[in-house]
Design a protein that fits this description.
heterodimer, A: HU Protein, Chain A, three-stranded antiparallel sheet, 3 helices, 5 strands, B: mainly alpha, HU Protein, Chain A, two-stranded antiparallel ribbon, 50% helix, 8% strand, elongated
Chain lengths: 90, 499
């Protein structure tokens, strides 16, 4: 399901226009951006939690050359599936 | 900061951003995630613009063993939901670390070295996070060789940088970091200078003799052949562990070096060439090494002595030619060397200032100072020996005293105590070199100041600490005396290994 189809489906179920739904999704993405870069996590009941995490730096060996590389630390947005959804998936 | 945004808060935030009703947003969110969940359950992957992709992957069953019993068990396969954030979203989240790039580690970067760097830095980080963060930037960019070190400490930095971004202020994290950059020089000097500086040691030896060269040309060839011999074959301190006490060990060619005054090529210079090699090769010798050294035939000392006498003779000749004016430089050098150190302080010691004055005044001072010193029981006798002022003056004029030229400061002359300042560049051994003629005598400065409670750890002295340089006589300090030197070496070895 790509973005377009998702927007259409949600719009149809809500009885709103595609544009409205797109706007709302954008707003949600905006909240995710600002709050998660502040190390806040966003929880959605029945679906999961978006939480930013820090990946530590590490030394990686390039398999082809055998050279060692230092990979810098990194912030990633992790997603933790809620138990409800996890059970439904099985 | 590290708070969990609930569903209600989220819908409120979205309502605010889109100026729609709260109720509408709640409905929308529910519907949105229901749709996504349904699609996922159906086995589809869902891609949302500006957020990312949700995908269900099948994890195969795998075999494992019960940790306690060792019985083989099979972990059943399951479906796993993975989320890959959109590129733009990932970039925003990673903003605090955006400036870092993957760096290639050079081949000579061993694990031990990395571990060593790791060990060094936490202590620095404990003091101040900000400069450390700056250093981290700096090192990442400029020294790809050792970027490992600061990285572990960057969590605090990240958290500081994080609160900034308010969509239009996305660059803020960087702004947070960059002001700290000027502070970088602070932590740098703190880190113990690692293994590199050692090869530099020999260098200060060379420039010193230079100013003398033009005059005593005939003398030069004699001592030269002597030097290389003692330096090379001597047991070198191989163990890097014992070299650790760097702060004491290295004679740093800082501003404290009393030599740079080429104008007055006093007798100290040629002589120093003989003593330098010694400390270099016995840096932190074990007692066995010292013993071994003492068992060696004394031939090179014979040569050295010859050299000293020859140089002294030459200088005597020069002095005679130049007249009486040359007797003064000795004090001037002492004063200059001191003032160099004291620049930031409230001027040079009174003693130093007085030393600039006429010989008459000096005599008075000496008398006054000897009174002060007399209060100390230990020194009493020694002071008595030196007391007669005119005698001291006579001595200076005499060539014999020139033959023992290391006594280039007041402390070494025996009568009085001097104080000097320890800085990041000037350590105890530097002071010992300056005042007594050999870095080995730092032990006595250390002992004196330890007894007075001024310092406690020879390797950890606060820059700016004013230490007392005890009179040379108090500890039988004589750089020309091999036994005295040896004693100091043994003592320093004991101190450094005892602590």
């Amino acid at each position: 399901m790509d973005n377009k189809k998702l927007v259409e489906t949600v719009a149809k179920n809500l009885g709103r226009t595609n544009k409205d739904v797109e706007k709302l999704i954008d707003a949600f993405a905006g909240v995710l951006r600002t709050r998660c870069s502040e190390m806040d996590s966003v929880a959605i009941p029945g679906f999961g939690t978006f939480e930013p995490k820090k990946r530590n730096e590490r030394i990686m060996v390039q398999p082809s050359t055998g050279k060692r590389m230092l990979v810098p630390p990194k912030m990633v947005l992790g997603f933790k599936v809620s138990k409800v959804l996890k059970a439904k998936l099985q | 900061m590290n708070t969990k945004i609930t569903f209600l808060e989220l819908s409120e935030l979205i309502a605010e951003a889109t100026s729609t009703s709260n109720r509408m947003c709640e409905l929308f969110l529910r519907e949105l995630f229901n749709t996504i969940s349904q699609a996922l359950i159906d086995g589809e992957s869902v891609k949302i613009k500006g957020i990312g992709t949700f995908k269900v992957t099948q994890v195969k069953p795998r075999k494992s063993a019960n940790v306690n019993t060792g019985a083989p068990i099979e972990i059943a396969g399951y479906k796993k939901l993975t989320f890959t954030p959109d590129k733009s979203l990932a970039e925003v989240i990673n903003q605090p670390f955006a400036q870092f790039e993957t760096v290639m580690l050079s081949d000579d970067m061993t694990d031990e070295k990395l571990a060593e760097i790791d060990k060094q830095y936490p202590s620095v980080a404990a003091d101040n996070d900000e400069p450390d963060a700056a250093m981290l930037d700096d090192q990442e960019l400029s020294q790809p060789d050792m970027p490992m070190a600061p990285l572990p400490d960057d969590l605090p930095q990240m958290q500081e940088a994080a609160p900034a971004p308010e969509t239009d202020g996305l660059l803020d994290p960087i702004a947070d970091i960059s002001p700290a950059e000027p502070a970088k020089p602070e932590p740098k000097p703190v880190e113990p200078k690692p293994v590199e500086p050692k090869p530099v040691e020999p260098e200060p030896v060379k420039p010193e003799p230079e100013p003398v060269k033009p005059e005593p040309t005939p003398v030069k060839p004699e001592p030269k052949p002597v030097e290389p011999k003692p330096v090379e074959p001597e047991p070198k301190p191989v163990e890097p562990v014992k070299r650790k006490p760097m702060l004491v060990g290295i004679p740093i060619d800082g501003p404290s070096q009393p030599v740079p005054q080429e104008e007055k090529p006093e007798e100290v210079i040629p002589d120093r060439r003989f003593y330098r090699p010694e400390p270099r090769n016995v840096y932190t010798p074990t007692p066995e090494q010292i013993e071994e050294a003492s068992r060696k035939p004394d031939r090179r000392w014979l040569w050295a002595l010859l050299g000293v006498i020859a140089t002294a003779l030459v200088f005597w000749g020069i002095l005679k030619g130049c007249g009486s004016g040359i007797t003064e430089p000795e004090e001037h050098i002492a004063v200059q060397a001191d003032t160099l150190v004291d620049l930031e302080d409230d001027g040079a010691d009174k003693a130093d200032v007085q030393a600039k004055e006429e010989p008459k005044a000096k005599e008075e001072n000496k008398a006054a100072e000897t009174k002060k010193v007399e209060e100390k029981k230990v020194e009493e006798k020694k002071v008595e020996e030196k007391k007669p002022g005119p005698k001291a003056e006579e001595k200076k004029a005499e060539p014999e005293s020139k033959a023992k030229p290391d006594s280039n400061t007041d402390a070494a002359k025996g009568g009085k105590e001097v104080t000097d300042v320890v800085t990041s560049q000037i350590v105890l051994s530097t002071l010992a070199e300056k005042h007594y003629g050999s870095p080995w005598f730092w032990v006595y400065i250390y002992q004196e100041n330890k007894n007075r409670g001024i310092i406690s750890d020879p390797n950890n002295i606060r820059p700016g600490t004013r230490v007392v340089i005890p009179p040379a006589k108090k500890y039988d300090i004589n750089p020309n005396d091999k036994a005295s030197l040896k004693k100091a070496q043994r003592l320093s070895w004991e101190i450094l290994n005892g602590n």
